Amino acid sequence: MKKSTLLVVCVFLAVLSVGSVYGQGFTGPGAGTANGLVQTVTVSQARGLPDRTLVILTGTIVQSIGREKYTFRDSTGDITVDIDRELWTLLGISVSATDRVEIGGKIDVEKRLVEIDVKYIKKL
Length: 124
Prior knowledge:
The chain is α/β, with parallel strands linked by helices. Helices cover 25% and strands 40% of the residues. The protein is built from three helices and six strands; from the N terminus they run αβαβββαββ.
């Protein structure tokens, strides 16, 4: 596995852990973010965020659409997610279309098409 992929995953997990420490019990402005860095959002909200925004989503991966691309779904809609093969191997998990998952990654906007470049996935 590439060292850069492992480093990105480690940094993202560190940012997520900061969010769990700072975000507990607070529901005012900025709730759902880790020092303003990571936002917990829905698919609908993710579509309106700027490129490279770090996000966490909860839902299901309903379909493989080829070349490390998948359709992710929550109650607000569907979005394409890009999950590298190395990430599946690194985390040692597999999911089915009925498994609820939490994904973390960054918004990737190209020519008005929005997808999530996944750096973290956890089966719930």
